[in-house]
Every structure is written in structure tokens, then in C-alpha cells.
Amino acid sequence: MTTDPLDLLQLRLGHRFGDPALLRRALTHRSARRQHNERLEFLGDALLGFLVAEVLTQRFGQATEGELTRSRARLVSGEALASLATELRLGEFLELGAGERKSGGQRRASILADAFEALICAVYLDAGLDTCRALVLRLFAEPLERLQPGEALKDPKTRLQEWLQSRALERPKYQLRSEREHGGVWQFEVECQVAALPESVSGCGGTRRAAEQAAAAVALERLQGHA
Q1: Using one digit for the tens of pLDDT, what is the confidence trace for 112-126?
Q2: Spatial separation of the C-alpha atoms in residues 225 and 143, rounded to whole Å
Q3: Distance CA 36, CA 26 (A)
Q4: Is 79 exposed, middle or buried (0-12, 13-18, 19+ CB in 10 A)?
Q5: Low-confidence ranges of the chain (pLDDT < 50)
């Protein structure tokens, strides 16, 4: 008896598709065939935005609209979704064109994030909103848990800039120091210069923005430690 390789993914998801074709399409990149996952990705993006916004408003009753918006953006960013896709080992199941697979597309953050959105849409179309909501809550359980009540929901760059502005200090300056690619995975290093610190600090990430955020977090930690 032959076992469908997608059985393992469905086990990880905790959802068995009534229409397996939806799952296969969600995992099909446009480089592989004409019937690919971009339309599912489009709707999945909207579904994730709605469902994450819903849970944030329920959990953070005192948060402002701006704080909720920034928190949602962080949770559903391309990098965050690619990380969740990696936890599901989604790259193992993607159908890619020969050239895309040869160049490491199964590990590329943008492709993984898009497939994750398409997968969420596929569950919604297969089983409805309640099942989709339950899956999103389970997959996002750890990232949501890290957003404790009272925690600043603003990203590190915003918090650093506001900390400096409140003390009439110069804005930070960010400079890309290096960008490297290995097996389709990129690594960026960014330097953050703050006049109030004796020396610059740096941060790394899978995107330039993520590296800037990491550098800003280090700078803010050092500034608050000296305050």
C-alpha cells in the first residue's frame, strides 16, 4: 500500500483534506505548472490578516489601533510566515519547476511565506472559517504567547526612534554591512549608529529589514542599560 507523502503534512496540520486537490494546488509554485497557488495565496493573505487581527483585539483590550496594527504586521510578515512554514517543513512538499528547485526555491523565504498563505486558504476552502481559525490559533500559539499583556507592541526600530526623540537625541543611522547567500538562503548584516552610544552595534537577519530591527533592539537595550 502506497502512502501519500502529503499524509505527513496533514498530520502536522491536524487537518485531513476532504479535497486533496486543494492541498496540492496550495503547494504548487507558478514555476511548476499553470494551475498554481497564487490565487490561494491572495485570499490566504487576507484571511491571515483578519484572523490575527481578531485574536489580537480579543487579547489586548487596552492596546491602541496603532499598536495592534504594528503587532499584526510583525506576526504576518513574510519572515514570520516563512519561519512557520519552516517549522512545518513545508519546503519538502512544494512542487517547483526544475530551475526553481535547482536554485534552492524550497528554502527561499518568499516562496515559503506564499505557500503558507495559500495553505491557510486551502484549509478555509476545504473546511470553513471555524476550522481555519482553529488552525491559525494553533500555528500562531507561540508567537502570540510572546506578546504578553503590557509588552510594548511596537517594533524595535520604532521604539528606538521614540526613545531618542523623547530625549531630543539624533535619529539612528542604519548601514548595510554585508549580504550573503548560501543555498538560496540570504543573510544580511546591518550596522546601527546612535550618537548616544560610544560605538555602533550590528544585527543580522534573513532580510535587510529584519537585520535593521535586530540592530535597533541591541542599540535600545544598551541605551536603556546606560540610562
Answers
A1: 999 999 999 999 999
A2: 26
A3: 7
A4: middle
A5: 1-2, 149-150, 152
What's the predicted TM-score (pTM) here? Answer: 0.68
Q: Taking the C-alpha atoms of 60, 55, 145 and 125 in order, what is their torsion angle to the nearest 10 degrees?
A: -170
Q: What share of the chain is helix, strand, coil (3-state, %, to 5)?
A: 60, 10, 30
All three cell numbers of 112: 515559503
Catalytic residue numbers read: 45, 117
Q: How many Cα atoms sit within 13 Å of 221 on the Cβ side?
A: 9
What CA–CA distance (Å, rounded) separates 47 from 137?
12
Q: Kindly state the DSSP code that residue 151 receives in the 8-state scheme.
A: S
Q: Which residues pair with 5 in a beta bridge?
A: none
Report all structural domains of the chain as residue ranges with CATH numbers, in order of start: 6-145 (1.10.1520.10), 156-226 (3.30.160.20)
